[in-house]
């Protein structure tokens, strides 16, 4: 990236550790002393094998779970000190998720699925149709599919719906957990192309959690995670 001005820090993790506690109080340490900064407009991959702590880290970054130790700031706000309601507000306005299994509602059309985050966001005052249409176009889903149900679409098309739904509220951060995991390699590449396009054209900050090493080719930075410890390398882009 050729950004001469000082980039703005969107995510700042300082000495983050996370343990789970089993019945009987047995501690399962999962993340160890993680320090990570992500800047606005960044596109990074968190790369590591299954069980290394990727989803746990993503859930903390996304405000779905809280760390056992350490500090987390998002856009300058102390996430570790937020109440449940404040976390919910952060998730509904600033952070979106794309999961491996798309989590689309089967009884609703594509268009209705994409509108849902705006309906959940009680403070939304924009034009629903404008936001939904814009998101579907950004996710490159052809208009012919907009009024179909998810089960009438291919895996790749469903993933585009999931991307449109993640974008509709115009979040600062898009988090994708194994976005290519359930797709054949060609469809997976198309999805990564859409994410790259969003990052380049609209400056959306993107964090992809994956065990797929080919994604290191398309991101700016790679954060390697193993047994809950990270070290960082440059991406190839
Ligand atoms: N709720 C939980 N309770 C206990 N252990 C958990 C919980 N969630 C995850 N773990 C453990 O933490 C480790 C990392 O899991 P996860 O973050 O899902 O890894 P990844 O996404 O890299 O596959 C695993 O050993 C897993 O069993
Ligand atoms: Mg995982």
TrEMBL record:
Residues 11-237 form the ABC transporter domain. One of its GO terms (cellular component) is membrane protein complex. This is ABC transporter domain-containing protein. CDD domains: ABC_MJ0796_LolCDE_FtsE (cd03255). One of its GO terms (molecular function) is ATP hydrolysis activity. The keyword Endoplasmic reticulum does not apply. Belongs to the ABC transporter superfamily. Keywords: ATP-binding, Nucleotide-binding, Transport. InterPro entries: AAA+_ATPase, ABC_transporter-like_ATP-bd, ABC_transporter-like_CS, MacB-like_ATP-bd, P-loop_NTPase. It comes from the Bacteria.
